[in-house]
Design brief:
Number of domains: 2
Strand content: under 5%
Radius of gyration: 31 Å
Helix content: over 70%
Shape: rod-shaped
Largest sheet: none
Distance between the termini: 42 Å
């Protein structure tokens, strides 16, 4: 939510509390009971959507970086063994294909890093028998495959979170519009019933309806002359 919505929600909550504290005053008016229920439903919807909206891609991005690191950890022993194998056998083509450093997995474009992992896994699998003498086991190759797949799955998650947040924002705007419609079209008008018959409640409601900028920085007092 933006600051305006935060302030509006705070006002909605105060209005709801004021109405509930004075329920004995208005509970005999069916139209107010209906409007209060509808208003409360929308406020609950707003609170739920706001919580969902606050999901941030930051945490997802951090998870993705952790998975990228795990992929690098799994790939580099295989890379080292393949380089050693290429040197012993004079296999220049293999050496060229696995000419990776850890930075090739940790930095750069996400999809390219995953592709680098695929290359290492493919070459590791193709040379699995020879690599056994270099300390590379089938379990290590499986770990590498799983790490690559986990990282690749994580690549799209920040964008998915951003898309979901945009959807929640649109739903939030609609919920605020509905709550405002109930408040201004129904409750504000019905409260006029109590301007004369119960001025205390009437004034409490008017006070609750004031929109206060709760996030504003207080204005400092003027300096002493």
């Amino acid at each position: 939510m933006d600051d305006r919505q935060e302030n509006t929600l705070s006002m909605y909550q105060v209005v709801g509390q004021t109405l509930d504290a004075n329920a004995t005053v208005w509970s005999g008016v069916v139209a107010i009971v209906t409007a209060r229920t509808a208003f409360g439903t929308e406020v609950t919807t707003i609170q739920s959507l706001a919580q969902s909206q606050q999901q941030s891609s930051a945490g997802v991005t951090a998870d993705k970086q952790q998975l990228r690191g795990a992929m690098a950890d799994a790939a580099m022993p295989v890379v080292g063994a393949l380089k050693a194998l290429a040197a012993v056998t004079g296999n220049d083509d293999l050496a060229a294909q696995v000419a990776f450093s850890r930075s090739n997995f940790i930095y750069g474009r996400d999809n390219q890093a995953a592709t680098n992992g695929d290359i290492v896994h493919t070459q590791g699998t193709a040379n699995a028998t020879a690599l056994a003498n270099y300390g590379i086991t089938a379990a290590m190759l499986t770990t590498l495959r799983d790490a690559i797949d986990a990282f690749r799955d994580a690549i799209s998650r920040p964008r998915e979170v951003i898309s979901a947040t945009a959807a929640f924002t649109a739903q939030l705007d609609a919920a605020f519009a509905r709550a405002s419609a109930v408040l201004t079209g129904q409750l504000d008008n019905l409260i006029e019933l109590f301007r004369v018959s119960n001025p205390t409640f009437y004034q409490q409601y008017q006070n609750a309806r004031e929109l206060v900028d709760t996030g504003a920085t207080p204005t400092p007092p003027p300096p002493n002359p």
